[in-house]
Design goal:
The protein has 107 residues and is mainly alpha-helical. The chain contains 4 helices and no strands. The radius of gyration is 17 Å and the shape is flat. The N and C termini lie far apart (43 Å).
């Protein structure tokens, strides 16, 4: 496999991430979580970084699932739904968790 073939395979997954769509079957999502875990484990230790990555992954997966459910409900009613508030809320919660892990949580 050359680089062009690999990019053809990964581009759809990258587009999903750019669209704030985090799914179980996206290998780039999991690679990002593993890379984040390995980077944070270097600085924080394994236990703290694992729990942070687990919470972050669950929040992102949950936000995507919630967005899909609400969009289906709103579209059935004939309205249009902008998922900005769900995306912003999930990033805000992740930011609060990051501040907690950086400044308050001891190993």
């Amino acid at each position: 496999m050359n680089l062009e073939e690999i990019m053809e395979i990964l581009i759809p997954y990258l587009e999903l991430l750019k669209g704030f769509q985090f799914t179980y079957d996206n290998p780039l999502f999991w690679a990002g979580l593993v890379l984040t875990f390995l980077t944070l484990a270097w600085f924080w230790g394994g236990k703290k970084s694992f729990s942070f990555c687990l919470l972050t992954g669950l929040i992102l997966l949950g936000a995507t699932k919630l967005e899909i459910i609400i969009t289906e409900m709103v579209v059935k009613g004939g309205e249009r739904f902008d998922p900005f508030i769900i995306r912003t809320g999930s990033l805000f919660v992740i930011a609060i968790i990051l501040v907690y892990y950086l400044f308050l949580k001891d190993s």
